[in-house]
Amino acid sequence: MLTDPALPDGTQVIDDNGDLRVLGFAKFADVGGDTVRNATQPEIDTFAPAQTEDENQQDADGADSLFIDHPRWRKLYTAYSDIIKDEMNILRGWITQFKADVAAANNLADLKTSVAAQPDLPDRTLAQLKTAIRARIDKDD
């Protein structure tokens, strides 16, 4: 694979794999002529989907690597995930109870009374989030 995107046009390139392009750069290796030249727009357009796919895969692999291979990042991701899960479960519990209240209500007054008894779901503050993250990071896995 062509590894130096700064190669000037006309630089000799030897490779038996066919025409190559450096992903992210507009240089194109003419293997038959063993030279490097600027790629034409149709050539760039041909490789654009492959470049996007390659970049997306590199991003995914990098994220996986951070989560799997780096203990500090893993603790942070785990903390965020745990907090999000807890918040979602609070909302699910509220919705489940609301549905039960609706099903059990005989009239609008019953429904209003039972819904009013539900706990409030106040907005979370940034300070609360930071505290929760720190507490979760300190928690043993």
Describe it.
The protein is 60% helix and 7% strand. With 141 residues, the protein is mostly helical. It folds into 2 domains: 1-69, no CATH class; 70-138. It has a 3-stranded antiparallel beta sheet with strand order 1-2-3, covered by helices on one side. Strand 1 and strand 2 form a beta hairpin.
Strand order of the largest sheet: 1-2-3
Total of domains: 2
How many helical stretches?
Answer: 4
Share in β-strands: 5-15%
Distance between the termini: 43 Å
Helix content: 55-70%
Uncertain residue segments: 10-26
Shape: elongated
- Succession of helices and strands: EEEHHHH
Mean pLDDT: 78
What about the largest sheet? 3 strands, antiparallel
The oligomeric state is single chain
**Class derived from helix and strand content:** mainly alpha
* DSSP E strands, number: 3
| Radius of gyration over C-alpha positions, nearest whole angstrom | 28 Å
At a glance:
The chain is mainly alpha-helical and 141 residues long. It contains 4 helices and 3 strands.
Outline the secondary-structure elements.
Blueprint (H helix, E strand, L loop, with lengths): L19 E2 L5 E4 L4 E4 L2 H29 L1 H34 L3 H9 L9 H13 L3
Helix pairs in contact: 1-2, 2-3, 2-4
Quick tags:
141 residues; mainly alpha; 4 helices; elongated
